[in-house]
Specification:
The protein has 194 residues and is mostly helical. The chain has one domain. The chain has 5 helices and 7 strands. It has a 3-stranded antiparallel beta sheet with strand order 4-3-7, with no helix packed on it. α1 runs parallel beside α5 and α2 packs antiparallel against α3.
Length: 194
């Protein structure tokens, strides 16, 4: 069903690490903004939460539900969510938050740890929402399955939902960006609160 295989290609590497790379460039150009490192970690926490959520969710015995309608969907369907996938995503975001927290100076370590996890989970939920609504989905003309692949069973698939240019890589870029923006907003809000 998935567009990508277990071997990473350049598009996947750019989609999962590109936002973090851009954040590092911003940090170099604008070093006075103190939260660049946290935004960097949050973008990586989001793509990790998405990857772990997907992989662990695929192992679940119960059917996932569509994030938009809450109806049961086939395992592997873009936009499908499950409790085990959510917990897996939270664990992935937690691991990134934990590994990144060793280099955080100042502030409340507990608060920082929590907002990185929250930003990671929010990014993964954005990924699921986009997967369910605008990511391109195709129907195989041979077996009739819905897939992310433009070619399935050796023939071209037919677009049945979403926008043709919004593939898994575009959705992963959005996931990483949503994680970084979520953390940026949470730190901005927390800095103005009493």
């Amino acid at each position: 069903m998935f567009e990508k295989t277990d071997t990473r290609d350049a598009g996947q590497v750019a989609a999962n690490g590109g936002v973090a790379g851009i954040v590092m460039l911003c940090w170099y150009i604008f070093p006075d903004y103190g939260a660049w490192y946290l935004v960097y970690i949050a973008s990586l926490a989001a793509v990790t939460a998405d990857t772990w959520g997907t992989e662990i969710g695929l192992l679940a015995k119960s059917s996932p539900r569509s994030i938009t309608s809450l109806r049961k969907v086939e395992t592997g369907t873009s936009g499908g969510v499950s409790l085990s996938g959510f917990i897996g995503g939270a664990l992935g975001a937690s691991l990134l938050a934990l590994s990144g927290s060793f280099w955080i100076n100042g502030g409340s370590p507990t608060f920082t740890f929590i907002i990185i996890i929250c930003a990671g989970i929010l990014g993964a939920l954005v990924d699921s929402l986009l997967g369910a609504t605008v990511q391109a989905q195709y129907r195989c003309t041979v077996c009739g399955k819905i897939t992310e692949r433009t070619l399935h069973c050796g023939t071209s698939s037919i677009l049945v939902r979403g926008v043709r240019w919004i593939d898994n890589d575009v959705v992963n870029w959005a996931c990483a960006l949503a994680g970084g923006i979520s953390l940026f907003l949470m730190t901005a809000i927390s800095s103005v609160m009493p």
